[in-house]
## 1
Amino acid sequence: MKFSTIMTVFALVFAFASAGCRYDKAGKGAGSGSGEGEGMDISSSQEGSLSDMTEGKFEDLYTRCTDVDFAPVYFGFDSTVVPQGELGKIDAVAQHLTEKTDRVVVVEGNCDDRGSNEYNMSLGENRAIIIRNYLVQSGISADRIQTRSYGEEKPAVIGSGESVWSRNRRGEFAIYQK
């Protein structure tokens, strides 16, 4: 990989990190709002998106798999901490990718509609990166994972109120076959 490409990726990661997005590593404190006890801090290893480091978007290179569908990972309000009860959903994806080595995943980060577009895009990307990091820690090669942020642009449910917002704060998995 060219040095200039690596420097560009580092610059993008730094830009996301310094964009003012609150990064609740402890799973507690203002804004985490998960109400589900402590989550797991999985943000420390290999932070950053590999989306820009591969030769192209998986969705442009490979075929979307329709034989498998994974449950979304839900987040607390303004949080990037994966609640303990949601880890099994990521484990299921890791197990699938371990068994099907010809498959790759795009982790899609989403938010509710509160906050600015810029903030929500950053928060969505950070949620996707957190899930990606967990997959890597589970033994999935980083080059098989890409991240996307949709911010508030692809809501699972339309409306307002906590019952709607809580379903829109999520990470989803799109599986592709090489």
## 2
Amino acid sequence: MKLVKVVIRQCETLRALDADEYLGTRIGYCPSKIEHIVVSGRRIHIFRKNCEDCVLAKLMKTTHVIGLPVIRKDETIHFIVRETRRAMKILKEHEQDILKMEEVDYREVYLTLRQKEALRLLANGEASNISRLARKLGISKPAALKLVKNSIRKLASRYS
């Protein structure tokens, strides 16, 4: 599976919200509306807009976006898209809005079953440190540390 990391400019609407953090996007009750959920100041705003001309909205409606889009302070939005014919056609139609596109290997984005298990054990408190995690998984401490570091690196690259 091929993936593409895309960077686009924020639309005027999102810039006007002066969002500090982007919590997510979802398709509203009406298929032509997209909802942006942002934190601005100390308040959470759900902003609904008809986004027929937005590349992100089109890709979200066709379920090509993986994970959550990330809004940065430099007024750009970063997200990862599955490289399909339909997604590439949408990106081609909106190439004037795209600042950067680069291919990403799926192994850099998706967690393996072992990585998911390690993070689950740590999150649930079943393994409170690396030594206990290593014992639970039946691996050495250096291997457990490497497993956790790689898992966190993948998550950080997806959401940063």
## 3
Amino acid sequence: MLRDKVCIRGRRALRDREAERLIRRAAHAALAALALPFGALVEVTLVDDDEIREANARFRAKDRPTDVLSFPMLHFYRGAYDGNLASERDPESGFVPLGDMLINVERAREQGEELGHGFARECAYLTVHSVLHLAGYDHEDEGEEKRAMRAREEEILRRLGLPRV
């Protein structure tokens, strides 16, 4: 099986080595925890408040900045896919594209400080959170779906050595 692939892009000013290392590590940990039966491709773009505000307004009709946005390519439910994965696999790379995420690096730094757990935990959390969205986890309801997603996030972050403080 192919190892999962995480591609990171964004303007040079936002291409922080620390953030990129954390994002790769967290994305690979989340994908490993999901134990998907294929090599997954995740595209990450590092953005600032203005860029994510524009995307949030365009795709979610919420004209304000946020910390992370997820754009799944396929319809999963808690890591399970009903369709034919063979038809989804990129014939050149062999990877199955899970989707794209936008991570607001500015907001991750601010929130890490505000919440008292630092940039590493916040950046990893946003990445894991987004990977889970790409794999069909959701938190729109305040019930079982949200509890399942939060439990998965915390399990993965503990494995990364970044538990909730």
## 4
Amino acid sequence: MLADIYAETKEHMEKSIEALRRDYKTLRTGKVTTAVLDGIKIDYYGTATDLNQVGSVLAADATTIVVNPWEKNLLGPIEKAIQNANIGVNPNNDGEVIKLFFPPMTVDQRKESAKQAKTMTDNAKVAIRNIRKNSNDKAKNLHKEKEITDDEHKKAQDEIQKITDSYVAKADETLKAKEQEILTV
């Protein structure tokens, strides 16, 4: 019973760390990533379709992303969708591909990106603590139903706290690495 609670706790906390890493991909660092275009939808024959499903999206170099649609009639809708997404650059349509030229980040932009990373990490820590509360509640119910003893309940709480501490530390480590990446010129 308790082993199941521990395994479930670890699994959910690991998912929180994975979600944090996915969130980090939306942040701008020194070099652009195609992840800044994730979530942009194109009207493809009446269906909202992800941008990467209607063409290739490549980072040509550290400051340029090239979108090459598989159907040329999609250039206009793609260009409009990118403009509406407000990602900080205007798309350049040359009739064949759409190019996005990102200017080098200023110090203030880097600090703002680092601040956003910190906020994302804090949200992940809140999620981890909510998982801890949920797991403690499950252990408390087992104790209340007399399925575990007082000592086992105390040990369960200690173990859940250890798991929580390790995942909070993991979140802090990912933040430190991300800040390093953002602030490196």
